[in-house]
Write a structure and sequence with these properties.
The complex is a heterodimer. Chain A is mainly alpha-helical. Chain A is built from 8 helices and 2 strands; from the N terminus they run H-H-H-H-H-H-E-E-H-H. In chain A, strands 1-2 form a two-stranded antiparallel ribbon. In chain A, helix 1 runs antiparallel to helix 3, helix 1 crosses helix 8 and helix 3 packs across helix 4. The two termini of chain A are about 15 Å apart. By secondary structure, chain B is mostly helical. Among the domains of chain B are: about 160 residues, Cytochrome Bc1 Complex, Chain D, domain 2 (Orthogonal Bundle); about 190 residues, no CATH class. Chain B is built from 14 helices and 10 strands. Chain B is globular, with a radius of gyration of 26 Å. Classes of the chains: A mainly alpha, B mainly alpha. At the A-B interface, helix 1, helix 2, helix 3 and helix 6 of A face helix 1, strand 1 and helix 2 of B.
Amino acid sequence: MSRSEAKAMQPFTMLRISLGIVYFLFGFLKLFPDLSPAEMLAGETLSRVSGQLLSSRDALRVLGAAECAIGVSFLLGIRPKVVFAIFLGHMAGTILPLFVLPELMFKVAPFAPTMHGQYVIKNLIIAAAGWAVLSSMGNATGRMQPSTT
Amino acid sequence: MVDLSDKTTKAITIGAVALTVVGLGYGIKKAYDRDKVSETSQVVGDATAARPANGALTSPNLEGLELYPTITKGLRTPFDLWRYYGRGVSSFGSPELPMKFEQWVEFHRKQKPELMEDVREYMASRYDFHETPMEGYFMTGGKPIMAGPVARLPGDFESFEKLAECPPDKIRSDDLFPYKPLAHPLQSTAHMLFPRSWIAVHPEHERLDVDMDIPEAYLPEFPPPMFLTTHKELGDISGGREITFDNYYDIFDGLLTPEQMEGLKELLRPTPTTWFNQTSHRITLEPSDGVACFDCHVNGHTNGAVELGPDSRPNMARLRTDTPTMRGNYNLMQLSSKRSIRSMDHFAEVEEYFDGDPGMQQALGPRGAQRQITNRMADFNAILDYPPAPKLSPMMTLYSDKASEAELRGEELFHGKAKCATCHYGPAFVDDYMHDLQVERFYVGRPEGPIKTFPLRGIKDSPPYLHDGRAPTLHDAVEFFNLVLELHLTRSEKDDLVAYLMAL
């Protein structure tokens, strides 16, 4: 890697580590009942999407574990295929509450979100950042490199 | 700059990541433990937090239990809430919705059909409501009485007798108990659920979020007859009518004392409740005048309306209760399933706070009934009599020339092998004690603790049975006790017992 290439990587590294921390932190919180402020929203959304097959507590366990895995993979700068797939699913999933629980998301739908709504909508940035970082990363065995596309 | 192919750098990276992960994990665990102890955390809005009770973790009773889900008003709750435990954010409720009223309506417009479909499916998984009437048996006013047991037998047991051969441990560990508790179908809001027959006449009590889950055939008759201790000669004083604010005066003028009359009027006066009122904290489309005592205790009896016992928090820990009759309350020393209320006027006083939350009354509309008023409500309650039982002698034994063979055999079992008379005796067939039947010996769940013995006089008129109505027929109630008291009754002995209960 040339010096200028490495320099170009720096913001990506920052982004990657901050994403790793946020994913891991928010994910791990979900494994403890009543600790995560997103518990009601995330659990309720997932249990509804599953047609009540998953209880909200079980849904949170699954979601928390997935977020931890994504977080660790960001931190390590690796991109196992499965984690990448989970990330894609997660990105799509984070906006689900807007459709599943609109009454809790909007003061006036669709342009005036509540605090919950903002919490969800700002995931757009996380999703985009994650996408950028992941495409800058090699797969599980590969080295970090700036995106060529 | 950084070259990850370099072995040391790689090791450092992994070390740093491991440190971060472990550090965060440890920090969160610490935060969790502190939060549990300090109990200061607040969950979004008015949510019911699920946090283990202090120190209770060492209690063997928590085995197999889960913490209550963290939810807010209106969100669905598990139908098997008895498997959950925990403490709430606060003992005190708030009269606010988690969203605007229009959104609340919209939210339930979408949720209710799905919820009710799941409720029906769940109830059908527990009971076979085949609505077969028992030949020749009717409630006092003529409604057919349903045959049972209707609880579904677990697995491949061909009979309740076979099931009763299993020891409690096995029934518990293999999840075989047919009489697990019933939760409110929407326990996050819970509150009063009226039967369809009532809603048909009182559409103002139609809820936008949830409906009654028990079929009409398994509920008391509507409107039920009313008998007065002071005017036995008049028989059913209601003449087949529902007694209302509009007609009570004509029906009772000249028959009651002025105090009883005033008491009756207050029992008929609607007052705002937690969810039936004029504010937006309601579950009716239009603002509501509220609910009167006789909207559930119709004609001094019951229409089978459901509510939660107001005696515990969080709301998810409250037991479902169906409305008991007021008939014969003059004989009871122990009122309500768990609160051990000792007098009818005291009851009318505490019933002031429908969900046991005086703090919300200011916002929702206080009733402000003074003690002299609640005393008069009790004055009227005190003359509500049982329906006639022509086969019962003054000593509460069956007249042998009037009773059938089966009823007489049932009477003997009641006092003998079936042990019922240990707790059900005297003029109301009740001992006025609370008993811990320890039903949790038979299923994995939070123990319900002591429950008052309910009287059996006039019992055929008030299905479904037990505090939460989990036994839809008398046959089911007998199966319940056969299992719980490990009586090993035969099929025909159970039928005899039911025949006897019908005669009380």
